[in-house]
Each structure stands twice: as C-alpha cells, then as structure tokens.
Amino acid sequence: MNLTIKKYSLEDASDLRRIFLESRREAFFWADPEHFDLADFDLATRHEEILVAIATGSPVGFIAWWPPENFIHSLFVDPAFMGKGIGKLLLNACLLELGRPATLKCLQANSNAIGFYKAMGWEITGAGESDEGDYFKLTLR
Questions:
Q1: Which Pfam families does the record match to this protein (predicted)?
Q2: Most CB contacts within 10 A, which of 23, 28, 36, 120?
Q3: Domain locations in the chain?
Q4: 84-124, pLDDT tens digit by residue?
Q5: Which residues pair with 120 in a beta bridge?
Q6: Which residues contact 91 (CB under 8 A, 6 or more apart)?
C-alpha cells in the first residue's frame, strides 16, 4: 500500500470526521457509541496541527497535536486500515515536528493503544481522571 502524509486541509474534514467517529465507536468498547458524533472531530482538533495519512487517494488516518506543549491529542486510523503501520507512520511524522519531551494521555481502558505507545518507546509517567475515564500520561523523552 502506498501511503503518504500531508498537512490537513478542509477538503479532508468529512473523511476525518467519519474516521474519528467510526474508530472511537470500535476502539472505545466501554463507552456508549451514541455519545459520539461527527462534529466531535471539529471540537477535538480545534486550533491543533493535524497531519493526514493518505492511501489510494483518500484519508485513512490522522494525528493532531498542540505544539506549545508538545502534546499529542489524537491519533486515529480508519478501522478498515488497522494493522498496516499507519499509526506508526503518523506518529513518527508528528514527532519530527515536536520538541521533547512529548506527552499524551491515553485512557487506561484502551489497552491496545497503551501497548502501541509503549512499543514505540513511550513511558507511563502519570495517571489521572477525566470525563471519559481514568487515563495514563505517557512521555517520550
């Protein structure tokens, strides 16, 4: 599969809204899927930098971060494209633009994502509570 990474543009919005909705409904099995909405993407990524993974001419994933704090807020891949290295490619592209230490929060119930980040060299450096549930803070130095 030929993958490219590009900066977000408004033409990507409808595809990324769908990816954000579908991937959360699938991955966040503990949450009520009726609480997720297409408009959540716009709220979650407002004022953030976004990179988009493109395969076969269409977006298949994205990563969004807040540069002033080197904080990765969102990393989502279309469920139909999981397991193809897209998340790793997006994360590495983002890390080229971030200073260190870089941080993120990951819900503790999302064990697949926690395993992914740990395999990529991230360390759990804290924990907390949010409206969505308990989370780990992860750091890459």
A1: Acetyltransf_1
A2: 23
A3: 3-99
A4: 999 999 999 999 999 899 999 999 999 999 999 999 999 99
A5: none
A6: 63, 72, 75, 120
pLDDT tens digits along 49-98: 999 999 999 999 999 999 999 999 999 999 999 999 999 999 999 999 99
Q: Is the dihedral of CA 28, 62, 19, 44 positive or negative?
A: positive
Side chain identity, residue 103: T
Instruction: At 128, list the tokens.
Output: 């907390």
* CB-based burial, 65-98: b 16+ in 10 Å, e otherwise: beeeebbbbbbbbbeebeebebbebbbeebbeeb
What's the CATH fold of domain 3-99?
Answer: Aminopeptidase (3.40.630)
